[in-house]
Write a structure and sequence with these properties.
The chain has 6 helices and 2 strands. By secondary structure, the protein is an all-alpha fold.
């Protein structure tokens, strides 16, 4: 419960968990799209071979699996950060949630597009949920703020981190003196 004028702050507090929920739903839809696609590659033939026997189709399957798992770990990390509460770095949590929003939308676009490719025209029809998943994925690029806004949030956080540690990375640079010194081989 809030007082007069607290509505915006209350709404903002709900955005993080809501975005995590959207991303979790997206990952679930991508899992189903991948399951449908992999089974379809075992059923469908092109030019006398199962689709599963083509290297590019195998690449699509592998890339989809890898990307889904990457996104899932990123979402779980964002949820963990959110669970840490206000004691944790709020800026880092917001940046992580912004990152998963971009990652989930891109993931869904790629995974579902590959699945639709495996299904051919059937992937566009209401005979599979793929067209609906693709539409949801496209909408995810825009809902709760477009990808560009979330990318800017992540970049601002990274730049703030860099400003705080400014100069700490210089130990990794090669100095002119090191370039002129004879090599040290042991």
């Amino acid at each position: 419960r809030g007082g007069w004028g607290d509505g915006f702050a209350m709404a903002q507090a709900r955005l993080g968990p809501g975005r995590i929920h959207h991303c979790m739903r997206s990952i679930g839809q991508c899992e189903l799209a991948l399951a449908l696609a992999t089974e379809r590659t075992l059923e469908r033939q092109a030019f006398g071979k199962q689709l599963a026997d083509y290297a590019n189709v195998q690449d699509w399957i592998a890339e989809s699996r890898i990307e889904i798992d990457q996104a899932r770990l990123l979402v779980l990390h964002a949820a963990w950060l959110l669970d840490q509460g206000e004691a944790a770095n709020a800026q880092a949590t917001r940046a992580q949630i912004a990152a998963i929003k971009v990652v989930a939308a891109r993931l869904q676009s790629r995974v579902v597009d590959r699945a639709m490719q495996v299904f051919g025209a059937m992937g566009l029809s209401p005979d599979t949920p793929l067209a609906q998943f693709w539409t949801w994925g496209r909408a995810l690029h825009l809902m709760d703020g477009p990808d560009e806004v979330h990318l800017r949030s992540v970049a601002r956080h990274e730049l703030a981190q860099a400003r705080r540690r400014m100069g700490a990375s210089s130990v990794w640079f090669t100095t002119p003196g090191q370039l002129q010194a004879p090599p040290r081989i042991r």
